[in-house]
UniProtKB/TrEMBL annotation:
Gene Ontology biological process: epigenetic regulation of gene expression
UniProt organism field: Geoglobus ahangari
Keywords: Hydrolase
Domain Histone deacetylase, first and last residues per copy: 20-298
MF term (GO), any: hydrolase activity
Lineage: Archaea, Methanobacteriati, Methanobacteriota, Archaeoglobi, Archaeoglobales
Domain of life of the organism encoding this protein: Archaea
Protein name listed in UniProt: Histone deacetylase
Length: 360
C-alpha cells in the first residue's frame, strides 16, 4: 500500500496569534517528528504537493457573498468572523491551498498515484458553513473535496468526522443530500453545541446524518464500541464509493481543549479499521483531512504518525504515549463514560433503525 501525504510549507504561514490554539507548531512539530522517524524516506510514503482550490470549486460549497467578504478582508487583514476566528492578512490564499490540498489528496487516489492519502492542511475547515467561517475555520476543506468528487460521478460518499468538536459546518452543507452519509463522533457538551442524535438530516437527506455524542472520559474502548455498533454496520449497508475522514486529533488524552481520553495508538487502530472498511467497500479509496488537535508537542506528532502508519499498513504497536496529569484525570471517568456511551449508542440505534436495517 502507498499512502500520500499532502503538505506545503505555506501551511505553516497561517497565524492568527502566536498564543492561539490553532498555531503553526501544530504542523511544524509533526513534520519534524515524521522526518526524525524517516517516514519521508519510506518507499510506501509519497509526498504530494497541493494546489489552490479554484473559486469554482469553492463556490460549490460557499456563497459568493462570503467568498468575496473573506477575500476582501484577507487582503487588508484585521477582520473578525467570531471571537476565536479572526482574518489575518493573506488567509484567503492559504485557505484556498488547504482546500486544494484536500482535492489534491482525492485526485491522487482517483489517479492511482497512491492507495489512500492524508491531507495535512491548515487552516482546518469542518466548522465553516456556506455563508461564514467559525471555530478556527474559513473554508470547509472536506466539503469542497466531497463536492469535487460528486461532480466526477460518485454517488455515495461517507464522511466520518471524529474530531472532538461536532462538524456543524459539514453537517449543514450535506443535511439534505442522500449522496453523502455524514457520521460524527464528538464530545458533548462542547463547542459548537450541536450534534444531537435527533439531528438526522432533512428531505432527501433524512437518515443520512448520524450524530453520536460522547461523554468526557471516552477512551479507546468507547471509540471501538461505537465503531463496531454503528459506524461499521451502517457503512456496510450504505456501501460508499469513497470514504472521507475529518481527522481531528483533539480527542487525545493530553488535549487541553477537550475531555476525551483517546490514545495515539487508539487513533491508529481507528484508522486501521477505516482503511479495512475502505478496502472491503470501495477499493481502498480513502482520504483523511486534518481538522483540530491542540496538544501541540505531547500528542499531535504521535497521533499523526499513528494515522499515517495505519494508512500505510504498518505496525502501530510501538507508537509512543506521553505521560500527563490530564490522562489520570480523564481516565478516572472511563467507567462512567462507558455506561453513558452504551446509553447514547442505544439512543442512536433507536432513532436510526428506521433508516438502516443493519441497526435493527
Amino acid at each position: 500500500m502507498k499512502t500520500g501525504i499532502v503538505y506545503h510549507k505555506k501551511y505553516l504561514e497561517h497565524e492568527q496569534d502566536p498564543r492561539h490554539p490553532e498555531r503553526r507548531e501544530r504542523l511544524a512539530y509533526t513534520i519534524d517528528q515524521l522526518t526524525e522517524e524517516g517516514l519521508f524516506e519510506d518507499e510506501d510514503i509519497v509526498l504530494l504537493e497541493p494546489f489552490p482550490a479554484s473559486i469554482e470549486d469553492v463556490l460549490e460549497v460557499h456563497t459568493k457573498e462570503y467568498v468575496e467578504f473573506l477575500k476582501r478582508e484577507s487582503e487588508r487583514g484585521g477582520g473578525i468572523i467570531d471571537f476565536d476566528t479572526n482574518i489575518p492578512k493573506g488567509v484567503f490564499e492559504r485557505a484556498l491551498l488547504a482546500a486544494g490540498g484536500a482535492i489534491r489528496a482525492a485526485k491522487a487516489v482517483l489517479d492511482k498515484e497512491v492507495d489512500n492519502a492524508f491531507a495535512m492542511v491548515r487552516p482546518p475547515g469542518h466548522h465553516a458553513k456556506p455563508y461564514t467561517g467559525a471555530g478556527f475555520c474559513y473554508l470547509n476543506n472536506i466539503a469542497i473535496m466531497v463536492k469535487w468528487l460528486l461532480k466526477r460521478g460518485f454517488e455515495r460518499i461517507m464522511i466520518l468526522d471524529w474530531d472532538a468538536h461536532h462538524g456543524d459546518g459539514t453537517q449543514e452543507i450535506f443535511y439534505e443530500d442522500d449522496r453523502v452519509l455524514f457520521i460524527s463522533t464528538h464530545q458533548m457538551p462542547l463547542y459548537p453545541g450541536t450534534g444531537y442524535p435527533h439531528e438526522v438530516g432533512r428531505g432527501r437527506g433524512e437518515g443520512f446524518t448520524i450524530n453520536i455524542p460522547l461523554p468526557p472520559g471516552t477512551s479507546d474502548e468507547g471509540y471501538f464500541y461505537v465503531f463496531e455498533k454503528i459506524i461499521e454496520p451502517v457503512a456496510k449497508e450504505f456501501k460508499p464509493e469513497f470514504i472521507a475522514i475529518s481527522a481531528g486529533q483533539d480527542n487525545h488524552f493530553t488535549d487541553p481543549l477537550t475531555g476525551l481520553a483517546l490514545t495515539a495508538r487508539g487513533y491508529g487502530e481507528l484508522m486501521r479499521r477505516a482503511v479495512n472498511l475502505s478496502r472491503d467497500l470501495c477499493k481502498g479509496r480513502l482520504v483523511a483531512v486534518l481538522e483540530g488537535g491542540y496538544s501541540v508537542e505531547a500528542a499531535l506528532p504521535y497521533t499523526n504518525l499513528a494515522i499515517i502508519a495505519a494508512m500505510a499498513g504498518k505496525d502501530i504497536s510501538h507508537i509512543r504515549e506521553p505521560k500527563s496529569y490530564l490522562a489520570e484525570l480523564k481516565w478516572r471517568k472511563r467507567d462512567y463514560a462507558m455506561q453513558k456511551i452504551r446509553d447514547n449508542v442505544s439512543e442512536v440505534i433507536r432513532i436510526h433503525s428506521k433508516y438502516w436495517s443493519n441497526l435493527r
